[in-house]
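note to self: dont lose this again. the chain is below, predicted strucutre after it. 187 aa total, dont forget to put it in the shared folder this time
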Amino acid sequence: MRRSLKFVGLVATVVISAIVGSAGALAFAQSHNQSVGRSGPAVVTTGGSITQVKVATDAPNATTGLTTLSQAPGMKVTISVPATYTNGALILARFSAESGCVGAPAGSWCIAEIFVDGVEAAPGDGSDYAFDTSTGASTYQWGGHSMDRSIVVKPGTHTVSVMWSVLTSGLTFWTGERSLIVERVKI
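---
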């Protein structure tokens, strides 16, 4: 009996911790003016086999301090969708890089977005995606980061590009060992 009471006590502790942790996360998100939960249902797109892959890599270090989006060095490819793909194609794009974000204020972030023909791929949300975050310090906290995006396109030639910027002036976004992998899937 004593053993089962310990188990019940352990379960109660875990449940209470989960509730308190969830409430804390909710309060943090709301206090930072971030949305909590989805505004609509998840979007699910299915396709067949991967029928084409394009890869762009660019190793030299690069920085930006611009608060408006600009082309990330070397991160642009074109991919074609044949006319025989009457339902179009699902484009899967993955960007990864070693990165660092420095400057004030702490908690501000450095932004990366993936565009196809000038349209942000899903689930893009503009500058709301933090590819990397500043601690407010003047030294980089380097790490490997990545993001995945997708979009359905019609037959034709499409340009996939990674754009980057910083949220606020005073930040510097550094990247090295960048990679953009783009896959085409027939739907």
